[in-house]
Amino acid sequence: MNNTTTAQSVNAVITSEELLHHWQGHRSLTRRLIVAFPEKEFTEFSIGGMRTASALMEELLHIAAPGIREIATRETIKADFSHAQPKSKTEILKLWDEATEEINHYWAMIPMERFHEEILAFGMYPGSVWSSIFYFIDNEIHHRAQAYVYLRALGIEPPAFYER
Question: Could you tell me the pTM of the whole model?
Answer without folding.
Answer: 0.88
